[in-house]
Amino acid sequence: MEVEIWDGGLQEQEVEAIEKIKASFSGSYKAPPDHGGTLRDQLQSSYGNSKGVFPWKGYAGFRFVESKKEGEFDLVIVTHCNVIIVELKDWNHQPVTARGDTWYKGDQNMGRSPVSVTRGKKFTLDNKLKRLAQRFTNKGYAPFVHFFVVMTGNADFSQLPEDQLHHTISLTDFLKFADRNTFNKHFRPHPNAQVLNQDFPIFDNLFFGPQTAPKALRVDGYEAKDKIFEHPKKVYREYLAKSEISSSTEALLRVWNFKNVQGSKAYTPEGRAEIVSREREVLQHINHQNRDLYNHCLRSLTSFQKTR
Questions:
Q1: Most Cβ neighbours (<10 Å): which of 7, 51, 174, 298?
Q2: pLDDT attached to residue 69
Q3: How is residue 233 annotated by DSSP?
Q4: Which residue has the higher pLDDT, 145 or 43?
Q5: Phi/psi-derived region of residue 221, left when phi > 0, alpha when psi is between -120 and 50, beta in every other case
Q6: 198-217 in b/e burial notation, b at 16+ Cβ within 10 A?
Q7: Which pLDDT belongs to residue 244?
Q8: CATH number, domain 218-295, options 3.40.50, 3.30.200, 3.10.450, 3.20.20
Q9: CB-based contacts of 206: which residues, under 8 Å, 6+ apart?
Q10: Helix residue ranges, H only, the chain
């Protein structure tokens, strides 16, 4: 599956998940063994059962410039019959629960339900596609838009309410949609709708050009505004960031790309923690030697957590 990626708005773990999706939705999916059903059903669930479904196409890390958060997209997939919005969440270790319209990871407030947020993005895309209905191969019918919050980490989300679980899925289960039988069982596409992959140029026109820009980079309530430094070996990028609550409050936002770090440490949570913590150790040394100098140094606003 070809994926168009806007540079700047995606984090490393999101790009990794998109690469897995890209590889799976390429027409070579092998379904897991299924000993239920008839022999014909089992044979149809084997390798190559996605013939005639692909190609699909993806658009990742972009936003509609006239919209706010409802206009930001991690990934939009145009299949042979519908459109799927994918909101990626790389949450680990602690269970995910909901209290009203707020999600929690353990005791940590993670903000408004990603399902509710992504539903707003669906409405945004629905409205744009309705205006193009007469241009699609299936004349007069805008493609149906589905949406999922795809959990790429190991956090248990099974305790979410049923209405939230309906749109929340693990990355492993999401990749199973590459199998035609699994896809049809879930989405039940109308025969006349299965020509959407002839309309990629319409989506290119919608997503490319001045109406879109890279998705805004947001971390812990701060939004990156201007890139002010990039490591010579592209190990990390630094941005001037502003608080989403108070525009006068600024911070330095650093985005790591551990793939560009030499050695094996970058591939383990412990090794990454050691790399990221070096600066904090230097600051503690400065604090013990010269308190006045320490007070003039930038310090982390958030505590470091090993998440991968």
A1: 174
A2: 59
A3: T
A4: 145
A5: left
A6: ebeebbeebbeeebbeebbb
A7: 72
A8: 3.30.200
A9: 128, 129, 132
A10: 12-24, 39-44, 114-130, 162-165, 171-175, 180-187, 200-207, 269-289, 291-295
Asked whether the beta carbons of 1 and 26 are under 8 A apart, the reply is yes
Pairing type for strands 168-170 and 212-214 reads unpaired
The pTM of the full predicted model, rounded to 2 decimals, is: 0.73
Q: For the chain, which residues make up each domain, given as ranges?
A: 2-214, 218-295
Q: Phi-psi region for residue 66, left (φ > 0), alpha (ψ -120 to 50) or beta?
A: alpha
Q: What are phi and psi of 116, to 5 degrees?
A: -65, -40
User: What is the rounded CA–CA span in Å between residue 244 and residue 234?
Assistant: 27
Q: Closest Cα to residue 275, out of 241, 231, 239, 228?
A: 231
H or E segment to which residue 219 belongs: strand 218-219
3-state secondary structure 185-247: HHHCCCHHHCCHHHCHHHHHHHHCCCCEEECCCEECCEEEEEEEEECCCCCEEEEEEEECCCC
Residue 223: predicted pLDDT: 77
Q: What's the token pair of residue 97?
A: 């629960």
Count other Cβ atoms within 10 Å, centred on residue 230.
14
How far out from the chain centre does Cα 58 lie?
A: 12
Q: Which two tokens stand for residue 241?
A: 């960031």
Q: Which residues pair with 78 in a beta bridge?
A: 57, 83
Q: Where are the alpha helices (DSSP H) in 45-161?
A: 114-130
Structure tokens at 287: 């604090």
Residue 70, both tokens: 């409802």
**Measured at the alpha carbon of residue 152, what is the angle toward residues 148 and 158, in degrees to the nearest 5?**
70
